[in-house]
Design brief:
The structure holds 3 protein chains of 3 kinds. The model of chain A has no long low-confidence stretch (mean pLDDT 91). Chain A contains 10 helices and 10 strands. Chain A is 40% helix and 25% strand. Chain A has 2 domains: 1-88 and 169-256, 3-Layer(aba) Sandwich (Rossmann fold), CATH 3.40.50.300; 98-167, no CATH class. By secondary structure, chain A is of the alpha/beta class. Chain A has helices at 43-50, 78-86, 96-99, 106-116, 122-135, 152-164, 182-199, 210-216, 234-239, 244-255; strands spanning 5-14, 17-27, 32-36, 58-65, 69-72, 89-92, 170-174, 203-207, 219-224, 227-233. In chain B, 27% of the residues lie in helices and 16% in strands. Chain B is an alpha/beta fold. Chain C folds into 3 domains: 9-82, no CATH class; 96-123 and 142-169 and 185-322, no CATH class; 333-363. Chain C has 13 helices and 4 strands. Classes of the chains: A alpha/beta, B alpha/beta, C alpha+beta. Chains in contact: A-B, A-C, B-C.
């Protein structure tokens, strides 16, 4: 089997400051990788390097494209990367305002990716948008409303629908439950777990919340000061942490 | 327009001072043919040729200050000036009419600086400069239609940043444009765009056809004439070479329709197929409809009178 | 039968005739000489030259007369004339350090070599209408003193000597070959600083003033001090390849402003002061200071500062809207007939209303 994503020696500096250093890992189809660490650990920098939002200083990010097999997305043209971004990839931002068009209706938000890849039948686009709104538990009656009027949890669910409607092969998520109330987080996590299982999604999820990793991720990578300090199967790492920093992370969660 | 002919040498006037050395220099005779110097016209012609080579692509050009305000057709005037030769016959219309004030003003400008023949008749013109209309009389091979364009960027009101819109064109990233049309149907039941209705050129670039009513959009498609678009203030030229495929954006189940005043015909020439202006005739709600294209209307009236005689 | 309205041509001619008469005003009042405008409305003339980007006080005065005192209209006349002039080349960069100073102030140093010179300024005048002026009173002769001999170095050069001021380097040291020309090449983004400065120096004074003010009120704040403001005469020369040496061909009045702005340092650079720069034709210090503040605000990205939503830091926003000839042209074009578009809009609104009414009927 070909890996879906191979990250090899990816580094990114901000001036003299290290964003992330020499990160290497492999993601297999159908696998969910969690990246944990506190803020400033470099996990978001790494995610943005993988998703093509930032250019790494060194390293390769090889993605198994539908048409041409494994390709290094770092050296691709911007046009190719953008095409990937609206077909095979999806990106769920922490703040739904960064991932939604706030002045476009919920239906239009979900339909945009369909139209971007050539859908031209209004009725079909609308039916698919409606189907996806249902899957993320948004009432069909609110389809023509703008997300401005939605609660934070609804906005986040809308963002997820907008990202998944074209059946992406790889989903990047940046703190998808951050900024939400605890009860809202639980519902969203539940929904995400259902979607991940049902669709067999491949995903990379960045979070500081070990509960998110425990629930969604098959494997986990722990980052500190831009470096990966430990990685392995989720249960293994969380139940039997080897690195002192991971032990600290796990114990601090248990104390809560 | 005949083949490229160069008129006179580039202006090499000495830098005499019009006030200190008598008021001779500012006389019109001191200006080059069609106002612009030859170097500027060459720059414009290069931009026009590039635009024709990449239909629908907006070519940046170094727009000059013209002696009329930006927004009043300086882009069209520069394009016309770059195309004009002394043998040309020029027609200028605004809102379809030859005698609207801006059309009169631009026509007079070219009579003054290029001394070319002018006409009201679409069939006799070799170059037609227009604002907001395409003539009703079908254009022919060899004719040039020059559009005045206020905002050349069809994505401008979706995305204000030039750097971003140019990238969207380059990468054919047009989902957002279609979203706008989707939103119209979701809210109004149809695409609520009456003019400057966006088109796709040869399946590639999305283009603003200038603020012509969408009634005129089908005339852009496979036209035998050369169609040039000039936006002076925004420094852009774009073009449709003859016989270019131009499709108005739509959805399969909400196809584009070229609409005009429903069920009306011209009160002067009785045409039921031309684009009509509504004229308010009294303050009690009385109104009538007449052709917006005055030449088309007059020709029909003349033909009828000819038949009657 | 209805007859379409004709006569646009005659209406235009008549309007122009009326305009000429209105411009002259009451003929029992003597006609205004161009020289009078040049000498007594000098700051208006300076502004027309700066925004028209053509240094010619006589033509600027004529434009003001023809424009009935409407400054933007006068700028427009100058621009339309300028565009037809042949271009022989670029001058050698002027040396403002050699300026024959008529005014020079610094808000950062109490005293500096060359001293502070107030010059002909409105500063410290009480803004009381002078009714004697209405009667044509001649001013008392002003006090005179011998000019300061030799060049007056820039005040910020003292900071530069200490390494506290970020140094500027010419994109093309010593040469004039690659000077960008806004009027010969289309403005494309992102624009380099030389091009930005070129756009700002001919930008609308009111627009720059408001933007500069907005930076001081917190929209892109950058802590500026007026390091130096100097007004005076500089010599303009050009290198003539055929002759193999430079010839001097003019002496012009310029206003130059350098602001000193704090800079916390970033990436590889230590904390130091940075500069905002303004240079304008004539005596135009409000414009020069505004330009320096806006220039510095536009450097936010280059210096790695936080970029918020401040308009003054947004290069596309500032450069696309700073030119008053472009702005007023587009603003005024909405006076032109839009019958056709309006008709299309009218039909659309009627149709949408019919659709809505149809839906309502169906619902009832």
């Amino acid at each position: 089997m070909t890996p879906l994503l191979q990250v090899e020696g990816v580094s990114k500096h901000y001036g003299a400051h290290l964003g992330c250093g020499d990160v290497t890992f492999t993601l297999w189809p159908g696998e969910v990788m969690g990246i944990v660490g506190e803020s400033g650990s470099g996990k978001s920098t790494l995610l943005n390097c993988m998703a093509g939002h930032l250019a790494p200083d060194a390293g390769r990010v090889v993605f198994d494209t539908r048409m041409h097999g494994p390709r290094d997305t770092v050296t691709m043209t911007e046009a190719e990367r953008r095409w990937l971004a609206r077909t095979d990839w999806a990106f769920v931002h922490q703040n739904p305002r960064d991932g939604l068009r706030m002045n476009v209706s919920a239906g239009g938000n979900v339909g945009e990716r369909l139209m971007a890849v050539g859908a031209r039948h209004y009725g079909d686009i609308r039916a698919q948008a409606q189907d996806w709104l249902g899957r993320v538990e948004i009432d069909a009656g609110r389809m023509d409303e703008r997300p401005r009027a939605f609660s934070g949890g609804m906005q986040q669910r809308l963002q997820i629908a907008r990202n998944l409607v074209t059946g992406p092969r790889l989903v990047f998520m940046d703190e998808p439950t951050g900024g939400l109330d605890v009860s809202v987080q639980a519902r969203l996590l539940d929904l995400l777990r259902g979607l991940v299982r049902k669709l067999g999604l491949s995903a990379v999820i960045v979070t500081h919340d070990l509960a998110v990793v425990r629930l969604l991720a098959d494997r986990v990578m722990v980052m500190k000061d831009g470096r990966v300090v430990e990685q392995g199967l989720t249960d293994q790492v969380l139940d039997d942490p080897q690195h002192a920093y991971t032990q600290l992370l796990v114990s601090s969660v248990l104390q809560v | 327009m005949t083949a490229a002919v160069v008129h006179g040498a580039p202006s090499r006037r000495p830098p005499t001072h019009p006030l200190r050395e008598g008021a001779q220099v500012t006389r019109m005779s001191a200006y080059n043919f069609a106002y612009l110097d030859e170097a500027t016209k060459r720059m414009l012609r290069r931009a026009i040729l590039k635009a024709l080579a990449i239909p629908g692509y907006q070519v940046p050009f170094s727009s000059r200050e013209m002696p009329m305000p930006y927004g009043w057709g300086t882009g069209g005037v520069q394009v016309t000036a770059a195309c004009l030769v002394p043998e040309d016959t020029l027609k200028v219309i605004d809102q379809g009419a030859d005698d609207t004030t801006n059309a009169v003003s631009i026509r007079k400008f070219f009579q003054r600086v290029a001394d070319v023949a002018v006409t009201d008749h679409t069939t006799q013109a070799s170059i037609i400069q227009t604002r907001h209309r395409i003539p009703e009389t079908p254009l022919l091979e060899g004719q040039i239609l020059v559009f005045q364009v206020p905002i050349p960027e069809p994505l401008r009101f979706l995305e204000p940043r030039e750097v971003e819109t140019r990238t969207m064109h380059a990468l054919e990233d047009y989902g957002l444009m279609q979203v706008r049309l989707y939103e119209d149907i979701a809210r109004h039941g149809e695409i609520a765009r009456a003019y400057a209705y966006p088109v796709r050129v040869e399946g590639r670039y999305i283009m603003d056809p200038s603020p012509i009513p969408k009634f005129d959009n089908p005339k852009l498609d496979m036209s035998p004439a050369v169609q040039l678009f000039g936006a002076g203030r925004e420094c852009r030229i774009y073009a449709l070479p003859p016989f270019t495929r131009v499709e108005s954006l739509d959805f399969d189940d909400y196809p584009f329709t070229a609409t005009k005043a429903a069920g009306q015909s011209c009160a002067i020439c009785a045409s039921a197929v031309s684009y009509l202006d509504e004229v308010v005739t009294d303050d009690a709600g009385g109104r009538m409809f007449v052709c917006s294209d005055t030449d088309y209307c007059a020709a029909r009236v003349a033909a009828k009178q000819g038949d009657a005689a | 039968m209805y007859v379409a309205v004709k006569g646009g041509e005659r209406a235009i001619e008549n309007a122009h005739g009326w305009l000429a008469q209105a411009r002259r005003g009451d003929v029992s009042v003597p006609d205004l000489a161009v020289a009078q405008i040049r000498e007594q409305m000098a700051l208006a003339v300076d502004r027309v030259m700066a925004e028209g980007s053509l240094h010619d006080p006589d033509l600027a005065a004529l434009a003001l007369k023809q424009a009935r005192g409407d400054v933007i209209e006068a700028v427009f006349l100058i621009r339309a004339f300028r565009t037809t002039l042949p271009r022989f080349g670029a001058s050698v960069p002027v040396e403002t350090g050699d300026m024959q100073i008529i005014r020079r102030i610094s808000a950062t140093y109490k005293d500096a070599p060359g001293g502070q010179v107030l010059g002909p300024t409105f500063d410290y005048t009480h803004r009381l209408l002078d009714f004697d002026l209405a009667d044509g009173a001649a001013p008392a002769p002003a006090a005179e003193a011998p000019p300061t001999p030799g060049p007056v170095p820039h005040i910020l050069s003292h900071l530069g000597a200490e390494g506290l001021m970020q140094s500027e380097h010419a994109p093309d040291p010593g040469g004039t070959h690659d000077v960008p020309d806004l009027t010969r090449a289309p403005l494309e983004f992102p624009a380099a600083r030389p091009l930005r400065l070129q756009a700002l120096t001919r930008a609308d004074e009111g627009f720059l003033l408001s933007l500069a003010y907005s930076t001081q009120r917190g929209y892109g704040r950058n802590h500026a001090f007026v390091g130096e403001l100097r007004i005076g005469y500089v010599r303009v020369s050009a290198h003539v390849p055929e002759l193999g040496f430079e010839i001097e061909f003019a002496e012009i009045l310029l206003t130059e402003c350098e602001t000193v702005n704090q800079f916390q340092g970033a990436k590889s650079e230590p904390a130091q002061f940075t500069r905002g720069y303004g240079l304008v034709f004539g005596q135009s210090e409000r414009k020069a200071i505004s330009m320096a503040l806006v220039d510095r605000a536009l450097r936010a990205r280059e210096l790695g500062e936080d970029i918020g939503d401040a308009p003054a830091q947004d290069e596309e926003f500032v450069l696309s809207h700073c030119d008053n000839i472009q702005s007023s042209g587009f603003l005024e074009h909405i006076k032109l007939p839009h019958y056709v578009d309006f008709q299309a809009e009218l039909e659309l609104i009627r149709k949408l209303r019919r659709n809505a009414a149809g839906l309502q009927d169906a619902a009832e």
